[in-house]
Amino acid sequence: MTANAANDAATILIVDDNPVNVGVVVDHLEGEGYQVLVALGGYEALERVRFARPDLILLDVMMPDLDGLQVCRRLHADPPTRDIPVIFMTALADVTDKIAAFEAGGVDYVSKPFQLEEVLARVRTHLALRRARQDLEAHTAVLEAEIEARRAAEQALRYLALHDPLTGLPNRTMLMDRLQQAIAQARRDQRQVGLLLMDLDHFKHINDSLGHFIGDELLEQVARRLRTVLRECDTAARLGGDEFVIAAGALHGPGDAEQLALRVLKVLDAPFMVQGRELHAGATIGISLYPGDGDNPAALLQAADTAMYQAKRRGRGSYRLFSRDLSIAAERWHALSNDLHGACERGEFVLHYQPQVSIDTGEVTGIETLLRWQHPQQGLIAPALFIPLLEEHGRMVEVGRWVLHSACAQSAAWQAEGLPPIRIAVNLSGQQFYRGDIVRTVREALERSRLAPELLELELTESLTLDDGEATLRIMGELKALGVVLSLDDFGTGWSSLGYLRRFPLDRIKIDRSFVRDLIGDQGTAAIVHSILDLARQLDLDCVAEGVETDAQLEHLRRERCPTMQGFLFSQGVPAAEIATLLAAGRPKPRRITG
Fold it and tell me: Sign of torsion, CA 581 582 587 590?
């Protein structure tokens, strides 16, 4: 093979009205392995280019019918031919003539009489430049396609994190954010915000008797109707199941909220046509108002929930405003707020522990620490009730420090009893992360307990990673320098993006229990879980599925190659003594869920 083989049979068009010049150049170029076409005039050249599409053109300037400059201008004006490099062959020696050649679109010129080696050198150079440009354009197109695909994937994941996959309405995360914004705006404008919480009447009967497909389509139609009664400042969301919420901003008083509730009841009163069936699905609505019924989203949601259940007791298909005299739950909320003061000092907080289990082997691979409140009169209080209270009163830094020290000490105590070392996970709140010196707190807990840093896992929430990106990255870096493990809790429920997962030094992500709960029977949820696990593998992150309660969920996760699970199927959160027994046994005994 000669060096000419590298030409890849490039096609060159020679345009010259002098057959002698043409013959000499043709013989030389063909001897170098090029395919050569010939045109003896300008019009012929344009005709040949239409069909041949050469890789390069050697163009004489002076021709009788159409000179080379005109030919080049026409080629340059036509998109299919404008990128073909043109080298002029000219006997003109004036600089202005050469400038005119470049202005017409030429890339180079050779002077007549010319040296064949010079012609060959120019041809090789411009063919190489054209190939390089084409390769660059192709590579750029591939990169742009990859970037666009990644951008689309991030947008899809962000959408799934903020919207209900069935109805397309905002989910709880987006609702709480919008509601917080509405409250801030109402505070400035001296207005009110209404929260309408609704359940569909008899939906469970429809779902059970006609099947989930009909139930899902009914929910989609309900969502579409709800959108028709909203103002620009209102947000409708689906919390799950048949539970919907409307956050209505800029209200003047309870009457505005009641009018909205009446519009909702009216729009839902008309029958729904679902797969040829006529269905009726009214709603029962509870209403709470800012600022009278609460000054934060959690309190308003609690109040609206209380009002909705009171409305159900009076009969479905109605609404009710929240009022203090009917709310035992609201009074309990305030009572617990008062009782929280000093609860840590009085030793009322206790820790329970829930094992994380390898799906392949069934062995315990980690333990999550769970905070519980042992109230002296009311017994064990659910975390969903008192954790928001701790955050509202700014006590999470203090209580979180106690949890961290206690968990590390307990893990070290298990080892002192001869049990195998095992990773222990502790949740960190946003208040701990930003308002307290979390790095110093972790360092002190490790030093006092003498626990190996790699046995401590710190679980961060998704919303935490958006508060201050640079501060978050700095604090995470300092924590990683201590040698601890970092995980992202409740993955998929907040504002996660591929950018955050790539940027932050995470070791593990935890699939939120809401996805695991709906994993069986909901193709959209199953697709999300599949995507999360695939993403974790691509980013070399460990993955834990939370809230596993059934054998069907476990088998699905096993097929999806999820490495670790956590949930009531194997164990609920239990006191330290029971964990010690479990670790000593080596493998947990499955706890079957019935009902």
Answer: positive
Nearest Cα neighbor of 130 from 74, 61, 82 is 82
487 CB contacts (<8 Å, ≥6 apart)?
A: 425, 457, 458, 459, 460, 506, 507, 508, 509, 510, 542, 544
Q: How far is CA 548 from CA 12, 173, 356, 563, 578, in A?
A: 69, 22, 11, 13, 20
Q: How far is CA 443 from the centre of its chain?
A: 32
**Quick check: 46 and 13 in contact, CB under 8 A?**
no
Residue 88: Cβ-neighbour burial (10 angstroms; 0-12, 13-18, 19+): buried
Instruction: Name the DSSP class of 85.
Output: -
Tell me the per-residue pLDDT of 136-161, one tens digit each, with 9 for 90 and over.
888 888 888 888 888 887 877 888 88
Q: Read off the amino acid at residue 279.
A: L
Residue with the two structure tokens 């707020």 = 337
CA distance 489 to 544: 9
Query: Tell me: the pLDDT tens digits for 244-303?
Result: 999 999 899 999 999 999 999 999 999 999 999 999 888 999 999 999 998 899 999 989
**CB of 569 closer than 8 Å to CB of 556:** no
| Cα 433 from Cα 196, distance rounded (Å) | 33
